[in-house]
Specification:
It contains 11 helices and 4 strands, in the order H-H-H-E-E-H-H-H-H-E-H-H-E-H-H. The strands form 2 sheets. Strands 1-2 form a two-stranded antiparallel sheet. Strands 3-4 form a two-stranded antiparallel ribbon. Helix 2 crosses helix 3 and helix 4 packs antiparallel against helix 9. The protein is elongated and about 55 Å long.
Length: 231
């Protein structure tokens, strides 16, 4: 393939997340440059960025390799998500634009429609776009960047089971948007915290045993009473 030089980092990251490059495998500049149809300069810059993000490590005598995260490192990402996503929603309630609201409401409508049809692949993509837009609406480039990196890393390390009741999940998304639209930062934070805790219970590590963290989250959850979220 041939891609713009500035997109090399995104392309390599996407391929790492998708499992094209296995954990621990070498990433040689020459082969990457040939794969993406660019010179070695943007590849070298991309590998530096991906190392800073934690997707790549440099090893003595081996050079750049795909990182091999531990179970503890993976669990830490879920803990960070429970802290940062509610903060992002709270900020979005204060700083969102009408354009953000329009996109969020459109995604909720589509998500609810697909949930009724039971199309899990569409729902996964729509959910990603929803959380990406919500992160952008927080009005903080630094927080948006951190949330985006978290989503990429979690998608790399975890497989996510489809929710038993996807319609309920999209009802929660709708409740978050309602709070953001009203400018109610406390409510947006609270609903997002509950939604995030529920979502984490469906995560399973792609490596190692991996079930303990999700089980602890499931057992610690408080049930979400969606009618009460509408008050």
């Amino acid at each position: 393939m041939r891609i713009p030089a500035h997109s090399v980092c995104t392309a390599i990251r996407d391929d790492i997340v998708a499992g094209v490059y296995e954990r621990g495998s070498r990433l040689t500049e020459e082969l990457l440059a040939r794969r993406y149809g660019v010179s070695r300069v943007p590849v070298r810059e991309a590998l530096r960025t991906l190392e800073a993000e934690g997707f790549v490590v440099t090893r003595r005598h081996a050079g750049a390799c795909v990182a091999e995260p531990t179970e503890q490192e993976a669990a830490d990402l879920l803990e960070m998500r429970t802290l940062l996503e509610p903060l992002g929603a709270s900020r979005a309630a204060q700083r969102r634009t009408e354009a953000h609201l329009k996109v969020l409401r459109g995604l909720v409508r589509l998500g609810q429609e697909r949930a009724r049809r039971g199309n899990s692949e569409d729902l996964r993509s729509l959910g990603g776009w929803f959380h990406e837009t919500l992160a952008q609406a927080c009005g903080s480039p630094a927080l948006t960047s951190m949330l985006t990196q978290l989503r990429h890393k979690i998608a790399w390390m975890y497989a996510v089971e489809s929710p038993v009741n996807p319609a309920e999940s999209w009802t929660e998304h709708g409740a978050i948007v309602d709070a953001v639209a009203r400018g109610d930062s406390d409510r947006a934070r609270a609903i997002t915290a509950l939604h995030t805790e529920r979502a984490i219970a469906a995560h399973r590590l792609r490596f190692g045993s991996g079930g303990d963290r999700a089980e602890r989250v499931r057992n610690s959850q408080h049930p979400v009473n969606m009618p009460s979220l509408r008050h």
